[in-house]
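Exercise 7.
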Amino acid sequence: MKIKHISHFQNLSDYKLFGLMPDNEEIYSFELTNKNGMKAQLINYGATVTSLQVPLSNGKLTDVVLGFDNLQSYLESYSLPSAPYFGTTVGRYAGRIHNASFVINGTTFQLPANNNGNTLHGGNFGFGRKVWNVANVTSGENPSITFGLLSEDSDENFPGEMHVYLTYTLTEENELKLEYKATTTKDTVINLTHHSYFNLNGHDSNVLDQEIFIKSVKMLETDENNIPTGNLTDLTGHAFDFRTPKKCPFPIDHSFVVNSKTEVIAKLISSENNLQMSVYTDQPSVHIYVGGNCFDQLKGKQNAAYHTSSGICFETQNFPDAPNHKNFPNSILKKGEEYRQKTVYRFENIK
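Solution. The predicted structure, written as tokens, is:
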């Protein structure tokens, strides 16, 4: 269902025009609100989270994700030396693919080399830069919105026509729940993730005094271009062992191996706002990124001056470059099969 048929959704009261694409296609902003007053704002450009307002113990709301006030700023951000991907849905393949190529069924596929000779986040024009459709909306308790995308065969040179659906649900437990589904007409690779930069003190502050916990004993070893070598690094005694919470490091751009579908795999903790975010996922890794890609020149929403330590990403996903490592988890989606992924970001007052 195309966004222009949005009037079909009788129960969708809270949406507004967010901006126009270069071809004048309209992009809309949608708001989900739960009974606690928590609010999520999303746009159908990139199936992007633009704002996530969480209630604090003092009753005030704080916006815990970085973003922009208008579509033009999102469009222009991709012209930066390294795009920040604020709040976007990353695909077809999150992270890096070495030498911008992989082999399926004996055929080599050459992708756009948009990062030091490698492919990053799906190439030049990944899912975060595409206009998604609105497939479904629910209101009342646990309101949700489902975005859909048709990625054509050979999109960024990836094989297969891919249908992707992403449902965002704002639960009454103050969770933002993400559920992905995808199918393909040809065997292909897939790795989807969410790229919000979180800051529990508010999007206009600094994350470096917040603590992180990661339930991981190993992380992926990488080379100087951040390409996985295929080996894992034992985190015992390592500076990046976060099994005991530590202050957010700077910089960090590493994939941590996790393997719990029911327990918390990561946390972000703010003592200033007595707020904690817990991350749950069925994916085998979480990529932690603090570095901002902001170049101290990005004006965010509400005129915030974003800098390199404004936010931290918890990118739940498969391993980067998994198509090129037989010992990494499977990244191939076969024709006739369905890709599914679930990630939850849960917010709680801790005092």
